[in-house]
Design brief:
single chain; alpha/beta; 3 domains; five-stranded mixed beta sheet; two-stranded antiparallel ribbon; elongated
Length: 364
């Protein structure tokens, strides 16, 4: 089988070399065309099957047809027995079309492509400093010892659709709140149903800067006296803990936040900031903690009474504040001050009887 293939290939290459010569007569070309068609017929799998023609054979037959066409339509038709002359001529037109539509590689001139790390640094400087123009970014790159031109900085910003400095410098609510987050508190109520279907109300506070949560209390009757007392307790707790001076407290327009509640906060210089009606996303930090408390804790516990609920939430808040990583803090814990240990056996601590697992390294 291999010998037969090599023989056919050798004969095919010999015919190609012959047809390239300029001294071949029409009769020789006609014989070559007939011989090639016989080879194609010999490759048929079964009787009546359609012959398979490779691209090289199409090129060869198209070249032969071009020579035979000079001898007239009759000679061309008599030489092509397997294929119609129009089919072979069509192959030739396709080859010509492919030749002129082939994308040729051109030698590009100009400056070399900028390094990916340098391009990423330009975008980082632009995003972190919205008031910096390309001249300022170029100067900062020069200060860092990176040789790029101001035109390169301009092209990088344009390629990534980064607007000019005046447009990037517009202040946003997100940037404003991020700047004052360490001076802001948020609080909210949420309800929990006990095992006897008794509704309990939970009041909690969360620090926007650190994400620390403080459970103020829980009750079935959150009247004005109870709410005001919880506000006093939280204020005293902040003073004892030497917490930063908070200036704003975000909460919704619930009627449970009575005038006495706001007066207690105002006495400590904390101004209430009311969210728009029916806009829970305006108090997103508090709403996100409620979701975490439900999904990670309360959905897996049957609450007996208010004392049980308070104990459960305080334990979960302790885990939240001291052991739970937060994506909004770069996977750090709110009150984690010590760097994590890199060595030591990994231990597990069960929170809430094993509902939540916390992992740590045992110091050597």
């Amino acid at each position: 089988m291999i010998y037969w293939l090599l023989t056919c290939l050798s004969a095919f290459m010999l015919d190609i070399m012959m047809v390239l010569g300029s001294d071949q007569t029409d009769k020789d070309v006609e014989i070559m065309a007939l011989r090639q068609q016989v080879r194609i017929l010999e490759r048929r799998v079964g009787i009546g099957s359609k012959p398979q023609v490779s691209r090289a054979e199409k090129v060869f037959l198209a070249a032969l047809a071009a020579k035979l066409q000079k001898g007239g339509k009759a000679r061309l038709s008599g030489s092509l027995l397997l294929f119609k002359p129009d089919t072979v001529l069509k192959w030739h037109r396709e080859l010509v079309k492919r030749k002129w539509t082939y994308r040729q590689r051109r030698n590009r001139v100009g400056r070399p492509k900028i390094d990916a790390e340098i391009e990423a640094l330009i975008l980082q400087l632009a995003n972190e400093n919205p008031r910096w123009g390309r001249g300022k970014i170029h100067g900062e790159m020069q200060k860092l010892g990176i040789e790029v031109s101001e035109a390169t900085v301009r092209n990088v910003l344009a390629r990534h659709d980064v607007p000019p400095a005046p447009e990037r410098g517009v202040s946003t609510w997100g940037a404003f709140l991020n700047h004052y987050r360490h001076q802001m508190l948020a609080c909210d109520f949420f309800t929990v149903e006990t095992i006897t279907l008794r509704t309990l109300y939970v009041l909690f506070f969360i620090e926007l800067g650190t994400r620390r949560v403080r459970i103020a209390g829980c009750t079935a009757h959150p009247d004005a006296v109870w709410v005001a007392q919880q506000a006093r307790n939280v204020v005293w707790e902040l003073e004892e803990a030497d917490a930063p001076d908070f200036r704003y407290l975000i909460h919704d327009r619930d009627s449970k936040y009575c005038e006495a509640f706001d007066r207690v906060m105002a006495s400590e210089g904390i101004e209430p900031v009311l969210t728009p009606p029916r806009a829970p996303q305006a108090n997103s930090y508090a709403e996100r903690w409620i979701r975490s408390a439900r999904e990670e804790c309360l959905d897996h516990v049957l609450i007996v009474n208010d004392r049980h609920l308070l104990r459960v939430l305080q334990e979960f808040a302790g885990y939240h504040n001291y052991e739970r990583p937060h994506q909004g803090l770069g996977q750090r814990v709110p009150l984690g001050t010590r760097p994590p240990l890199r060595e030591g056996a990994i231990q597990r601590r069960d929170v809430l009887g094993g509902i939540v697992h916390s992992y740590y390294r045992q110091a050597a």
